[in-house]
Structures are given as C-alpha cells and as structure tokens.
Amino acid sequence: MQFADPQEARDFLDRHPEVRSIELMLFDANGIPRGKLLHRDELLAIYENGRPLPSSILSLTIQGKDVEESGLVWEVADADCWTYPLPGSLTLQPWRAVPTGQLQVSMHPSQGLPATPGDPRHVLVRAIDALKADGYHPVMAVELEFYLLDKQRDANGRPQPAVQMNGVRPQAPQVYGVYELEQVQPFLDDLYAACEVQGLPVRTAISEYAPGQLELTLEHRFDALQAVDEGVRYKRLVKGVANKHGLQACFMAKPFSDLAGSGLHMHVSLADAEGNNLMASEDPQGTPLLRHAIGGMMATLNDALAIFCPNANSFRRFQANSYAPLAKSWGVNNRTVSFRVPGGPAGSRHVEHRICGADANPYLAAAAILAGIHKGIREQIDPGAAIVGNGYEQARETLPTDWLTALRNLEGSAWAREALGEDFLKVFLAIKWAEFRQFMGEVGEQDWRWYLNHA
Q1: pLDDT at 320
Q2: In this predicted model, what pLDDT tens digit does every residue of 250-260 receive, in sequence order?
C-alpha cells in the first residue's frame, strides 16, 4: 500500500489559495464515500501524520447504521484508526459552488487496525499482488451505467427521468440516440470538464437502453488499481455534477421494473511486466490463458455473486432478453452472455465481465474477478464451448437470482475466505446480513397493494 508524499499537499495549497475546504473520503463496503469536510489548514498534517477515523466507519449498512456483529463498533470501543492519503487523489471538486478540494484516504496496514481488514481497497490490492507474484499484471477498465433522474418525484411518489433541454421528459429508450445526448449537453459538458480537472480518462458517451439512462466509458489502465480508483472517483463525480444541475444520478441496479437495469461492466486482460497482452491472439476466442481465466470466473461465480450483486434490488436486474446475463456462459462478440470476449484487433483481446450491477463496490467486484481468474489459471479450468447466438435460450447453468441464496453461497465459500480474506468477509457478511434483516422486516407499498384487501 503506497501513500502520498507531503510535497503533494504543499504544491496543491500553493496552487489553490482559493480552496478553504477539502472533502476527505474513504470508501466503505458498499462503495459509499464517507469521511469529513476539512479546513485547508488541516491538510498537510494528514500527509505527515495521517488522519484518524473511527473503526465503525467501515461497519456501516447502506443506510449508515452501525453493525455491531462486524466487530468494529463496541467490541473495539469504536477505536480511532489511522488513514493516509492516496497518491494523486488530491484534486478539485469543480461542481461545488465554493472552491473545494477532494482527497481519498485508505486505512494504514498497521496503524489502521482494527479497521484495516474492512477497507475494500485492501482487498483489491491483495488480489492484484497475488497475480503479480505469478507474473501476471491485470489490466482493467470500468464502465458504469446510470440514470439521470428528476429530483422531484411523480404524482405517485416514484422517481422519474429528468426533463431534458427541449422541455420533454423522455419516455422511449432511444438507445444510441445522438439527439438524446444533445438534450443533456450542459450536464455532459460539465461532466467532461470535471473529469479533465480530476484526471479521469472519460471517453465515449452513450444513450443507453432506457429513457434517461447513460453510460460513459473510462479508458483501460495497465495498473488495475488505478483503473478502479478512477472508477470509484468517477461515480462520486457524476453524482456531484448531477446535483449541481438539480438532478440525481442513480446507480441502482434496477430503479424501474419496466426499464433496463444499470450494470457495472469490468474489462480485464493480463499483461507481462512490459505491458504485453498475454491474452492477445488472432483467434477471436483468445489464448488458452484467456479461456482459463474465463473458466475460473465461471467456477467462482456463484460464490462471488453477493459481491457482484450486493443488494436486494440487484437481483431484479436479472431478466431474460434484458442485456443482463442469467447464466454461467461466455462467447465472442456476444452481449447475451456473462463473459464476453469483444471483437477487435488481436492485441486488444480481453474479457468483459457483465454480471455486476451498477450498485456493486468496484473494489470488491474487481478483487473477486481477479481472484476467480487466478484460480482458473492455476487450475487450468476449461470454460466449455463458447455460446454462439442467443445465450438466454442456451443457458446450461443459470445463476441464483435471489439475495438470500447469494449470501449463503458467499458465507459458505472456502474460496472467498482465501481470496478476499477471512477478516474482511466477516465484516462484509455482518453488514449484508444486517441489511437483509432490515429489508425483509420493512413493510411497504407493494405489501399493501398486494395483500391489504385480499389476505
């Protein structure tokens, strides 16, 4: 784990005398940024001596409630745990009305105890280091789909796509529509500008398969940790820019029952130390290494599903003919499978992992993907024949499509304990079981609509 040099803070303060506040953020198990708003006079001390945060900051549910079973609350007296800045993470938040900085921190391996094992970024570092020890350097890219929503609910209290520049609230999907992109141009202009300020490699914008749904691609990185760091910071940025425009950026996996869900697509290949793609091949199905990587991801998919789909809502996304995969399947240039080998030049050969919902924590998703790949390579797991044609109709082994089964599979997985770390898994499962109990214990509108008059 590398932390930043204090000179980075001195240079930032010299360049930006207008900045009075800095948002300090640490990403929790749900991928939610949590932290503090600091005065500029506090910044240099964080680089020199670290910043304490309570151990309970990594024990929280998605609603921000303590989970005592995590072992990070009263059991350790909610102890202060030291965090340190990540190199290159000190930047501006251009969407703020008042000039504000942004700094990402992570738990120190020893000074951050007892909370260190609960830091999701450490889990990814563990998976990357294990691959590098065997001579494989993971190359990754992150793609996130999201909805631009109106902050005002509809007459029934439900969320709705935002009104566009033409004064119309979109109703039709208009997938790949360029006119639809034009209608959100002010938002996109500010988003691209903010990404440039923060050094995030955002590229193509796409109108996705639902009204108000967008995707912007991030360029792949030879350093997988950098790619995922940029992915989580991009998500924070999108929410901030949307808020500036009076909108809400929604990364729920399935915010609307009758519209497309939002996915987190992870692109991955393996390179040698010089950056040469070890999956490169003139064969569209790639090298044996690529196929073994897919075999490993398929073999560990059931165990990791609660990482890729961490919430009750995540499983509403799994519907046939919806571009959300339903089975352990792979194919070439095929969007109906879980693991897609995109077309393109031989040197670009890689795998697109299509399982995750946009609500997944990118650190944990990437860690589980890489650990699955590592298992497949070490054990030379054969993924079977590639799917040709409609993968929904050829499913050989479908995925469990409920949260309870996924959590039980993760809890019982010896592979997950080894790959993700037993201490981390204890924290993560405690949080998710607490959320499961809270979710299942809440009576809401659907219960009344279905059962109030007829049970």
Answers
A1: 65
A2: 999 999 988 99
Residues of the chain with CATH 3.30.590.10: 127-445
Give percent of the chain above pLDDT 70.
99
Give the pLDDT of residue 309.
97
What one-character-per-residue DSSP string does 323-372 give?
TS--BS-EEES-TTSSEEE--S-GGG--EEE---BTTS-HHHHHHHHHHH
Please spell the DSSP secondary structure of 102-150, one letter per residue.
EEEEEE-TTTTTTTGGG-HHHHHHHHHHHHHHTT-EEEEEEEEEEEEEE
* Sequence ranges of the chain with CATH classification 3.10.20.70: 6-115
Check: CB of residue 386 under 8 Å from CB of residue 331.
yes
- Judged against a pLDDT cut of 70, whether residue 36 lies above it is answered with yes
* CA 192 to mean position of chain CA atoms: 20
CA dist., res. 452 & res. 132, Å (int)? 57
431, 61 Cβ separation under 8 angstroms: yes
In one-letter notation, the amino acid at residue 455 is: A
| Residue range 253-275: mean pLDDT, rounded | 95
Q: How many CB atoms lie within 10 A of CB 312?
A: 15
Average pLDDT over residues 370-393: 92
User: What is the Cα–Cα distance from 156 to 161, expressed in whole angstroms?
Assistant: 14
The band of 323, judged by pLDDT with boundaries at 50, 70 and 90, is: low
- Note if the bond before 114 is cis, omega within 30 degrees: yes
- CATH 3.10.20.70 applies to domain 6-115: yes
Q: Could you please state the CATH topology (level 3) that the domain comprising 127-445 is classified under.
A: Creatine Kinase; Chain A, domain 2 (3.30.590)
Strand ranges (E), 186-336:
202-207, 213-218, 247-250, 264-271, 330-332
| Long-range contacts of 10-18, Cβ-Cβ distance < 8 Å, separation of 24 or more | 10/44, 12/43, 12/90, 12/101, 13/40, 13/43, 13/44, 16/92, 16/99, 16/101, 18/99
What tokens does 15 get? Answer: 């360049």
Q: What is the pTM of this model?
A: 0.96
pLDDT at position 271 over 70: yes
**Could you give the CA distance from residue 180 to residue 326 in angstroms, rounded to a whole number?**
29
Position 322 scores a pLDDT of 63
Exposure of 141 in the CB half-sphere (CA atoms within 13 A): 15
Among candidate residues 262, 266, 280, the one with its CA nearest the CA of residue 224: 266
